[in-house]
Design a protein that fits this description.
The structure is a single chain. The protein has 441 residues and is an alpha/beta fold. It has helices at residues 13-28, 52-70, 82-94, 110-118, 164-168, 176-188, 206-209, 214-222, 242-250, 267-272, 279-292, 311-324, 351-374; strands at residues 4-9, 32-34, 42-47, 76-81, 100-102, 123-125, 146-150, 152-153, 172-173, 193-197, 229-232, 254-259, 297-304, 328-333, 380-389, 394-398, 410-413, 423-432, 435-440. It folds into three domains: 4-131, Methylthiotransferase, N-terminal domain (Rossmann fold), CATH 3.40.50.12160; 146-374, tm_1862 like domain (pyruvate-formate lyase- activating enzyme); 380-440, Beta Barrel (OB fold (Dihydrolipoamide Acetyltransferase, E2P)). The strands form four sheets. Strands 2-1-3-4-5-6 form a six-stranded parallel β-sheet, sandwiched between helices. A six-stranded parallel β-sheet has the order 7-10-11-12-13-14. It is globular and about 60 Å long.
Amino acid sequence: MPKKIGMISLGCPKNQVDAELMLAKLANAGYEITNEVDGADAVIINTCGFIEEAKQEAIENILDMAELKKEGVIGKIIVTGCLAERYREELLREMPEVDAVAGLGANGDIVDVCARALENETVEVFGEKTCLPLSGERLLTTPAWFAYLKIAEGCSNCCSYCAIPSIRGPFRSRPPEDILEEAKHLAESGVKELIVVAQDTTRYGEDLFGKSALPALLAALSEIKGLEWIRVLYCYPERITDALLDVVAAHDNIVPYFDIPIQHADADILRAMNRKGDKQSLLALLEKIRTRLPDAVLRTTLITGFPGESEEAFETLCDFVKEAQFDRLGCFAYSAEEGTPAAALPDQIDDDVKRERGEVIMNIQYRIFEERNRLCIGKTFKTVVEGYDPYTDSYYGRTYRDAPDIDGQVKFTCGYELQEGDFVDVEIFDTLDYDLIGEVV
């Protein structure tokens, strides 16, 4: 009987792609991949270690698996991902229940790691960060109709609060022909929505060609038969060019959804973050996007409580949110990560103040969100069907305005039976919290 391997993958879609590459290697090696950890001979926890909350989530999952291991419900525990890379020897020392720790550079050796752990060997293996596999066969863990497409790895932006460059190494792009081959394979397998990801998608190609090649890559992806939507995440504001806006405008299947991690709007705070821009330049960018693409959906993430964030700087951020009128917005309290320049800055902000400021921002944004959602009433949107709720006798899905697992949904009725992954036109007639309500037309 083949050994059963379970996987718990935490964190961002980029980490999910890493997990899918590892799962395919294991399946091809003869292991049985199981969706349930109960009864698994080994459970891989593919961790995130970006901020404190992510680290705590990873540790809690490891402890949960340790309890199941103690009870005999599962066999070995293998830890991979960012937490494994960042804390290396500390994991085995602090958590003796763990059987194997594999850094990011060892993802390609996951079959050997599992085999050794299953032979009762305690395994520690770390390769060069740049050895992390960027391509290969994947065992998709997303629904059949969408998949993530990772076009680069690592980051060279070196924001002062961020540990990603030290965890995942410098930014490195995949060759375009490699990306296009994978995208064609995904489309042929039934994927209808490709979600393009990297730490900074707008930097794609700079290391290969000396300039951003994202517009050209998107244009080539748009020609692949069967792709209804191509969505791009993680666009840095200073790298959103006219060429990028033009290629989105020119291709119907590249959705005008701009995920722009802005983080703050006060010029002094942005300089301390080692980021560019200020409130006025950011507002000008948003205006340019909306002028060029009137149906554009703008999403951002912000950080409150960064060291030195005065009341005045926070007011600048509040005013910016009110003026920017983002369609989607997430806000996080600053997390002081060891080894980052920002952790050593003076004027650290009290945790309660960080959280309170975050709540203020989200209260402002919720009112904006309600208003912008109401603007959708009376409009018709192409919608991907994601499921059926028998309790409300209605379907649910997403429009181009919503990224999976991030944004809201559309709940709608239909006079005939639909299948998951179908695309239908839905007319919106109401809103409910973060969701739209409609019916198929």
